[in-house]
Amino acid sequence: MNIDNSERLKFRLMDVTDTQALWQIDQDPLVMKFLNGGTPSTKHEVNSVFMPRMQQYRNEALGWGIWQVLDKCNDEYLGWILIRPMAFFTDKPQLNDLEIGWRFFQHTWGNGFATEAAQAIQRAVVSVSVLSGTEVTHISALAVADNLASIAVMKKMGMRFVKSFRHTDPIGDWDAVHYQMSVSQ
After folding, report:
1. 147 Cβ partners below 8 Å, 6+ apart?
2. Residues 57, 172: Cα–Cα separation, whole Å
3. Cα 17 to chain centroid, rounded
4. Could you tell me how far CA 28 lies from the centroid of its own chain?
5. First to last CA, the chain
6. What does the angle CA 98 – CA 174 – CA 92 come to, to the nearest 5 degrees?
């Protein structure tokens, strides 16, 4: 699947050849602040944890995976958008509720890139789901409760607060908020 360019951005589904790009964005402690307290990822972590997880949910036909976000004027790598079924790494993944998340280089913050990219990718993936019969009904996002910038993106997308909870995951547990929106098909 391809995603059409948005006003300022273009998109490419990332794969196992993108370890350097995924590692590079994780080197800024401020980017990592709400993910693990600000510790940059090592190349070993990207190769042994992050990439194998991505490969488990990556589905090119449905648009699931990590989409590299580039400035369409100069091809600058700005960040990425993740999209996959909610609760994917449990025994009950929610195929009708897709989780969306983002990570952008600090110098790009405050320009609306995360919202623009997330909306473009969400629309494209929902459209493909109609054709494939996967019946996506909701888009959800999770964030650390103190991550006000990510929560602002969720609200700009039209998401509403669902709950606060303790998120458990093989790569770490954290106090989280869950926001969600219905999608019209």
Report:
1. 34
2. 18
3. 18
4. 18
5. 18
6. 40
Look up residue 150 and give its amino acid. Answer: S
Q: Dihedral of CA 88/93/94/96: which sign?
A: positive
Which of helix, strand or coil describes residue 15? coil
88/25 Cα distance (integer angstroms): 23
User: In whole angstroms, what is the distance from residue 154 CA to residue 182 CA?
Assistant: 13
Q: 80-89, 114-123, 132-141: which range is least confident on average? A: 132-141
CA distance 33 to 14: 23
**Chain segment 130-165, per-residue pLDDT in tens:** 777 778 999 999 999 999 999 999 999 999 999 999
CB count within 10 Å of CB 166 equals 8
pTM: 0.93
CB count in 10 Å sphere of residue 33? 15
d(CA 126, CA 128) in angstroms, rounded, equals 5
Measure the CA–CA gap between 143 and 141, rounded to whole angstroms: 7
Tokens coding 147: 């991550």
Q: Positive or negative, the Cα torsion across 164, 165, 169, 172?
A: positive
Question: CA separation (Å) from 22 to 2, 73, 158, 162, 184?
Answer: 20, 22, 28, 30, 32
Q: Which domains does the chain have, with CATH numbers?
A: 9-182 (3.40.630.30)
CA pair distance 65, 55, nearest whole angstrom: 8
